[in-house]
Amino acid sequence: MRHSPVCRNGCASVWSDMSLWVQKYGGTSVGTTEKILAIAERLAEQRRQGHRLVVVLSAMGGETDRLLSLARQVHEQPSGRELDLLLSSGERVSIALLSLALQELGCSAVGLTGRQAGILTEGRPNKARIREIDTTRLQQWLDQEYVAIVAGFQGMDESGQVTTLGRGGSDTTAVALAAALEADECHIYTDVEGVYTADPRLEPGARKLEHLTYEEMLELSGMGSHVLQLRSVLFAEKYNVPLRVLPAFGSDSGTLISKEAEDMEQATIAGIAHNRDEAQLTMTGVPDTPGIAARILGPIADAQIEVDMIVQNASRDGDSDFTFTVHRNDYAAALEILQRIGEELGARETLGNRDIVKLSLVGVGMRSHAGIASRMFRALAEEGVNISMISTSEIKISVVVEESALETSVRALHREFELAEAA
Ligand code: ADP
Ligand code: ASP
Ligand code: MG
Question: Which of 24, 64, 199, 212 to mutate to test the pocket of ligand 1 (most atoms within 8 A of CB)?
Answer without folding.
Answer: 199
